[in-house]
Automatic annotation (TrEMBL):
Sequence ranges assigned to domain SANT in this UniProt record: 5-46
One matching Pfam family: Myb_DNA-binding
Annotated Myb-like domain residues: 1-50
GO molecular-function term, one example from the UniProt record: DNA-binding transcription factor activity, RNA polymerase II-specific
CDD domains: SANT
Name of the protein this chain belongs to: 8459_t:CDS:1
Domain HTH myb-type: from-to ranges: 1-54, 78-128
Amino acid sequence: MAMQSGRWTSQEKVLLEQLVNRYRTNWNEIAKHFPTRSARQIREHYQNHQNPQSRCSTNAVNPTNTCLYELTFLSVDRRRITPEESKQILTFYELFGPQWTLIASCVSERFTGVMIRNHWNNHQRKLRRNIRSAEHPFTTGNLSFTFLCLAPLKRTNDVLI
């Protein structure tokens, strides 16, 4: 059968909650009860949406800049990432590379790895956009300058006016 994407129905959410109570985090076993959802879809939905307290948080960072984990259940907070948190993400990315869950646990207990990865990708996209606009000053968004450049030029004795 084809995999289903899109919103989860309330019936699917209730069934998932019952199956998690029964099978814990055995996603392959749970997936047997969802013919149109993969084990990965089920796990990601449960961890990132239905049960936001399923993440571990970090309570301390040791001197070698590696995170120490202590199992604490916290809620995911979907507020914007602050500039200070963004700087921390950059620092931890330089240390760990694209280990999004590890970076999320080091930056703040309110983020998931998916949130950190999406923030990183959006930030990189904005940087590339800014570099391109700096390389092509005619496309900076200055509308009057753009129209001025596109206006037909008149020639008078081989001199542009």
